[in-house]
Amino acid sequence: MCKADYKERINEIISRHNNDSKKIISIIQEVQKEYNYLPEEALVYIADTLDISHSKIYGIATFYENFSLEKKGKNIIRICDGTACHVRDSIPILKEIHKELNLSDKKITTDDLLFTVETVSCLGACGLAPVITINDVVYPKVTPEAVVELLQNIKKEAIE
Question: Whole domain around residue 53: which residue ranges?
Answer without folding.
Answer: 3-63
